[in-house]
Specification:
Elements (H helix, E strand, L loop, with lengths): L4 H5 L3 H36 L9 E2 L9 E2 L19 H4 L2 E2 L4 E2 L5 E2 L2 E2 L6 H12 L3 H8 L3 H13 L4
Antiparallel strand pairs: 1-2, 3-6, 4-5
Length: 163
């Protein structure tokens, strides 16, 4: 009886408690869907700044980065602004989002978009590349204005409400 104080005080309290639990589950589901949508937007935005021509077209063999790479581009070094461009694709491929957002209290979740993974050359060079040719921070800044709209659309879709 101590756990069911709502049912003991209010007629129909058990049904009310079940309905409140269902509402909380729907809120959690909608929050997770919206968070995943915002993560995907951020990930796309970061990768979008890394799709251009690489600044350089060759790299020697290394124990950390593997075999030599030679793209035979002309000119060999490109002077440009913006991100590092796509050289081998390992840095671009390392941009990922957390698969399962973590619960932080009632109805609150946190998710992460990151560069790098377990091992690999992208972990060695990601900080140096970001410092010299920013790709992560500009991608996040580009995605931030779109986040509220994406959040609202995903929330409405998850809760099946129309504007």
């Amino acid at each position: 009886m101590a756990d069911d104080w709502v049912g003991g005080l209010i007629k129909g309290g058990e049904a009310t408690k079940l309905e409140l639990d269902r509402i909380q589950r729907d809120v959690d589901k909608a929050t997770k869907k919206a968070l995943k949508s915002v993560q995907a937007l951020t990930k796309r935005s970061i990768k979008g700044g890394m799709r251009g021509r690489p600044r350089w077209d060759h790299r020697g063999a290394s124990s950390r980065t593997g075999e030599a790479v030679n793209l035979d581009l002309n000119p060999h070094v490109a002077k440009k602004t913006g991100g590092p461009g796509k050289f081998t694709g390992s840095l671009s491929g390392s941009i990922r989002a957390s698969k399962r957002p973590r619960k932080k209290g009632i109805g609150n979740y946190s998710g992460v978009v990151m560069a790098g993974g377990k091992g690999g050359p992208q972990n060695i060079y990601k900080g140096k590349v970001e410092g010299t040719y920013p790709y992560f921070k500009p991608g996040v800044k580009k995605a931030e204005p779109k986040m509220p709209a994406v959040w609202e659309i995903a929330w409405a879709k998850a809760t099946k409400t129309k504007k």
